[in-house]
Amino acid sequence: MSSLKTRERLSEVRYEIRGELARRARELEAGGRSLIKLNIGNPGAFGFRAPAHLQRAIADHIAGTDPYTHQQGLPAAREAIAAFHRARGTPNASPERVFVGNGVSELIDLSLRALLNPGDEVLLPSPDYPLWSAATILNDGRPVYYACRPEHGFLPDPDEIESLVTPRTRAIVLINPNNPTGATYPRALLERIVAIAAKHGLLLMADEIYDGILYDGAAFEPLAPLAGEHPCLSFGGLSKVHRACGWRVGWAVLSGDPLASGDFHHAMDLLGALRLCANVPGQFAIEQALHGEDTISALTAPGGRLHDTRTALIEACAASEHLELVAPQGALYGFPAVTGAAARGFDDHAFALQLLEEEDVLIVPGSSFNVPYRNHFRVTLLPEADTLREVFTRIDRLLTRRAAAKPGVVAA
Fold it and tell me: Structural domains in the chain?
């Protein structure tokens, strides 16, 4: 019997966060190895819990969660999201223009499916969160990358963004605060990007899932208020700020002139109806999440767990002769670079595999985030600070062996 054929475009899709290295890690664990896994920003896997008042909100309404709800989400949940965005200054934020999904991941896929015809282009940051590239490809679009270079603090150049616009370009994607770099985008930069989108008639797509995770006075600037009447789709959810990844609750808010985005709104509604509705129980936590107690600021402030782990990352990279780091201003990750003698002939995937096999640490190679260079890697800030210090002791140990090896010889 011949083997089943799969979609050819899948060969273009990469998602190393849960890919080959993660599979090898499972094999090692099955053989009795104890690993430190820093590949996924999954708070619950590191001992975090969703806030108690959000858990209570679901428990108190569990009896009413059996039926399907409206394809765009529970009315009260959509009103809570719209009110949150109105308070930010988002124009035309109304419940009718809010879409609740099974996490932001589903809504990214639906929105690109609603937007793209075969061969259409989407401007994506490099590095990006690879789901954006994958969803563009699988919806028959073409990712076109604008560079966010480490020497510029991982911020993009608006002139480069505009130079990439063609007649097939449909959207500009921003990830702010950024995954994997932790960069936060200043207002003036966002205003220039809005002007480019308005000039060329492009949809703005703002992945703002980490909007409340900020360090040392860094500011978050939401994109929709700056976009004004220009169409903008803003994504948020419960998984990161509220540490509830498994609940699969995300939302997208379509702002700007309703007449300019009416067809796109109807397309999103149709695609939402085809998947019936999003997870209902988790939607009952949305109002409390957005309008209840702030539980993230204590974690990111000095003395908070996330702040302490970020400090450990910064100090470990500063103490290493092999590493450089642009300190993350937000989100849950660091994106260090390997430099100097250790970087000779460096291949990030080979290094990640060697680190896993020899030092029992799982990281994500930087090239997984669609960058042209191969000397970066991503770690999450979710473990305790002491655990991260131990990780970087092991990383530095392996890099020291690499630096001492003769050129062309891989350290064993």
Answer: 8-49+298-404 (3.90.1150.10), 52-291 (3.40.640.10)
